[in-house]
Specification:
Distance between the termini: 23 Å
Keywords: Hydrolase
Shape: globular
CATH class: Alpha Beta
CATH topology: Thiol Ester Dehydrase, Chain A
InterPro entries: ACOT13, HotDog_dom_sf, PAAI_dom, Thioestr_dom
Radius of gyration: 14 Å
CATH superfamily: Hotdog Thioesterase
CATH architecture: Roll
Strand content: 35-45%
Family: Belongs to the thioesterase PaaI family.
Number of strands: 8
Largest sheet: 6 strands, antiparallel
Helix content: 10-25%
Number of helices: 2
Order of helices and strands: HEEEEHEEEE
Strand order of the largest sheet: 1-2-6-7-8-5
Pfam family, one: 4HBT
Structural class: alpha+beta
């Protein structure tokens, strides 16, 4: 049986603004753009400060995109559980992204009572090739 999201795109963006406003410290660069059964997609609009030498988006910026998207994907399916936390995140940087909009789509691979495992694919908007791939594990606090 597929997982169905219980929070809307609007709910998730509002959560980021109210409960996790720290994510917008660099300005509003993260936005939830899609959600559906077992997945969510976020957009990142990096700025020059998110570049590293060579004119590519930095690894820490891509890591943050994967982590925030995994968090939002989980919350979309379990509700606004603010204290769900990352316990592990592994990322592979595959290609050098240009400064420009990126998207990350996360899928839930396993959703248990206490742990969730997710898969994150990051690409330039409109491109098919991935610039990074990550897997994340989240701890879900007891209800």
């Amino acid at each position: 049986m597929p997982l169905e999201p219980i929070l809307t795109i609007e709910d998730l963006n509002r959560f980021l603004e109210t409960d996790f406003s720290e994510v917008h410290t660099d300005g509003k660069i993260f936005e939830v753009i899609a959600t559906g059964p077992g997945f969510a997609t976020m957009r990142l609009d990096p700025q020059e400060k998110h570049l590293r030498p060579g004119g590519t988006v930095s690894g820490p910026t891509l890591f943050a995109l994967a982590d925030v998207t995994a968090y939002i994907t989980l919350l979309a399916h379990i509700g606004p559980v603010a204290l769900a936390v990352t316990t592990n995140l592994n990322i592979n940087f595959l290609r050098k992204p240009k400064l420009g909009p990126l998207q990350c789509t996360c899928r839930i691979l396993k959703l248990g009572k206490r742990l969730a495992v997710l898969d994150a694919a990051i690409s330039e908007i409109g491109a098919r090739e991935l610039v990074a791939h990550a897997t994340a594990t989240y701890s879900i606090p007891p209800r």
